[in-house]
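Lecture 7 notes: from sequence to structure.

We start with a single chain of 393 residues. Read the sequence below before looking at the structure.
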Amino acid sequence: MSKKKLSIIIIGVVICVVALSAALVMVKGKKEKAIDIGKSSGETDEQSYWNPDIHSIAKSEEGYYFLTYDVDGTTLKYFDDATQRTIAVCAKPDCTHDNSDCNAFFSMDYLSSPVYYYKGYIYMVRVDGGMAKVVRIQKDGSKREDVADLFANDGVTSISMVFHDDCIYAYDHLGHTASDEVGKEVIKKIDLKTGQSEEAFSYEGKNAAISGARSFGDKLFFKILTYSLDRDKGEINESFLLYCYDYGTGNAEVISDKNISDYYVDTENGVLFYFVIGKGLYSRKLNGTDSTLLYKADETIIRATMSYDGNYLYMSNGGAGSATDYSKKIERKIFVLKTDGTVVNTIALDKNSGTAYFGDEKYMFFAKTGGELVYIDKNNILGDCELKKAESN
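Now the structure, written as tokens:
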């Protein structure tokens, strides 16, 4: 079996178990801490609205880079916003874009996710001798250069990154979730100019991982997941702690120990939105601790992944149909809500719709098996949303 296929299988299992499962974990002594995210540093490329740990699409000035993959390797493509069509990222004259000589082709050494775009460059991850390395790539695919080592890796797509102030904050979102031994989870800070790295944050625990990191203002938000699976009962137990890291001071602290499956910050109004597993969608002011239930969890949405585009909140139920049995599935749906919790549309998805990336204020993107890109134009987000295939030139 090829390394790429093995990576896909492993990450698929973990996503089904961790991202789509619905576990109810009672956490005692709920902790809510007020916080000031400060003013934005002027970053425009942080892209916190994307799915943080399945980052296979990245926004540029006039379009979107994304990855497709097969048994031979990965191909980097570009979705043009003006034409809504895709092309291979290769500027070679007369290239047919169907062989390994194409600049858009990446060998099996490259992970099939993630891809990022930051300040004029594309960033991907390759594995060399068991070490994952972040690679900087020219916009036309013509030049690649290693920036820095990341983490030990055997070809599994488990690397996540956040870009801020010419630095990368990288972590392994699978961590030690499959180990009963105490492991050290690390966020590594890498200077993009020098390639030098240092440990920004660490956490030690059993069956743990860092997940769902997003940058807002002068803070980095992320979750600590503690996970266990009772195979005899077929039950999952998860707990989440929501952390906040200050870029300026380097200090990190827990701001909520509610069992939050996902969250988003409205920086304009200083509001934290979050979904508590089995309870529902809440909001609270960042500078306060009192929360308001906006949408109560029910059999159609026990847990959620979330996004916010400045106009509406988006919640995906991931097809999770049980609080304890992760194999039980229901119809996949995405709920579109006003910030007061009013549902303004519900988008039904079939099993072939693929992974939801949510997107930005223009599009909601999905990737089918193999990375085929489909999308919803948000101009009609309140109407009958049609999934369109991104056609090639």
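Residues 3-19 form the longest helix (17 residues). Keep this in mind for problem set 3.
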